[in-house]
Task: inverse folding
């Protein structure tokens, strides 16, 4: 049981209101593997997401979440249309929806780096993260607004 808690990071907890503003939380449940390399976690987190044009939101952080536990925090330096850059793996969704330069992009990816200033979040379980969110990507500001209304 201790090993499961350690793997999930359930010893330390955090609430949505403690998350940095202007962040996007990205659920990597389908691609996360225990002890995965940082570059693989980066690729799993950064691409390819069906979201509104993220360049307009000025997102400060992209937070990789696995089963409500923060696995890593990245700083997106630039957002590009999906499949604009090389990645170590490609998902089935990417293959089914190849980029079309004639169409406005509906999938996005970022190029960035590890957020050294927010490593204090890594390993913390988000206690009030809603279950069953429809989209694997959710904005911290949206979650905070929903909490204030309820």
Result:
């Amino acid at each position: 049981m201790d090993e499961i808690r350690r793997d999930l990071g359930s010893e330390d907890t955090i609430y949505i209101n403690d998350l940095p503003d202007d962040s996007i939380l990205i659920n990597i449940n389908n691609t996360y593997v225990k002890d995965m390399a940082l570059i693989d976690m980066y690729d799993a987190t950064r691409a390819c997401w069906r979201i509104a044009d993220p360049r307009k939101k000025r997102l400060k952080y992209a937070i990789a979440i696995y089963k409500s536990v923060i696995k890593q925090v990245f700083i997106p330096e630039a957002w590009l249309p999906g499949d604009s850059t090389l990645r170590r793996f490609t998902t089935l969704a990417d293959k089914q929806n190849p980029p079309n330069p004639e169409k406005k992009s509906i999938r996005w990816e970022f190029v960035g780096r590890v957020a050294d200033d927010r490593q204090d979040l890594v390993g913390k379980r988000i206690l009030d993260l809603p279950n069953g969110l429809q989209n694997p990507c959710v904005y911290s500001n949206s979650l905070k607004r929903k909490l204030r209304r309820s």
